[in-house]
Amino acid sequence: MVVGLRNFTERVGDGAGQPVLNADNGEELMHVESGVAIVLGNHPPESPGTLFISTKQVIWLSDVDRAKGYAVDFLSVSLHAVSRDPEAYSSPCIYTQIETEENDADSEGSDSECDGTLDLSKITEMRLVPSDPSQLETLFEMFCGCAELNPEPNDEEEEEHNWIFSADQMEDDATDLYRPIQDLAVYAKEYFLSIDLYKDPTAENFLNEFNV
Amino acid sequence: MGLVQLFFSYFKDLVGREVTVELKNDLAIRGTLHSVDQYLNIKLENTRVVDQDKYPHMLSVRNCFIRGSVVRYVQLPPEGVDIELLHDATRREARGG
């Protein structure tokens, strides 16, 4: 699975039509929207093109250049929204943020603008501008539905919940043994507080042993 | 009841309240909690970016869907939090889990 935006060039038939999907994986086409321009990062809009939303990914294919297309898995779409604020972007559109590989050196939201080349792996913002803005709500809901179909792969319940109760616990290897004792100390402290015994130095020393 | 289920139930009770969601990429978004699902995907309404200098392009969007896996924190309204209840529930969960 590729994190982030990537080129997509596999088209059905003689290259004029729909994207090739992974039917073995159960991938299905959910929605097709023609007349959509794509805006990657701060680059100029690319159009005309067609948007294909499948159960696994978002694909945009250029209508004029059969070798040009982009796709991103829903797993990499961090957020999506309907943007109608003209200050944010001149046309109403679907705004998305794309998760990229960890690259601390790069500034947020930008891509390699210095020489104009498009580095897809660094694109963190993508806008989809339909020529028919009345379709925006439909597209938004479609994105929501498909995002819900793509939860994190290892989202099952873990065997152990590594919950931290105090900073000290982070260094302690025997947390499983320590935790019940810590809990007891917390309860003890609360009890002592309630009967005003916490001010008693003896009690305080006792409790300090447990880092309460 | 798993921990995710616990938070799912907890967030469901917060629907309609103002929350601030901080993502792992440091973006913070404030809005009204519209809904949450079992993967802790969050839908916000009337959202605005908290630090507009960092993300000027986003500004205000009406509806926003945030993937659960990219959320770092959800900042809750103090009046929406019953600390004792949450504390007990998570402690019980940690012991039982």
From TrEMBL, chain A:
One of its GO terms (biological process) is chloride transport. InterPro entries: ICln (IPR003521), ICln/Lot5/Saf5 (IPR039924), PH-like_dom_sf (IPR011993). Pfam families: Voldacs (PF03517). The keyword Nucleus applies. It comes from the Eukaryota. This is Chloride conductance regulatory protein ICln. Belongs to the pICln (TC 1.A.47) family. Keywords: Cytoplasm, Nucleus. It is found in: Cytoplasm; Nucleus. One of its GO terms (cellular component) is pICln-Sm protein complex. The keyword NAD does not apply.
UniProtKB/TrEMBL annotation, chain B:
It comes from the Eukaryota. GO terms for biological process: mRNA splicing, via spliceosome. One of its GO terms (molecular function) is RNA binding. Pfam families: LSM. It is found in: Nucleus. Belongs to the snRNP Sm proteins family. Component of LSM protein complexes, which are involved in RNA processing. This is Sm-like protein LSM2.
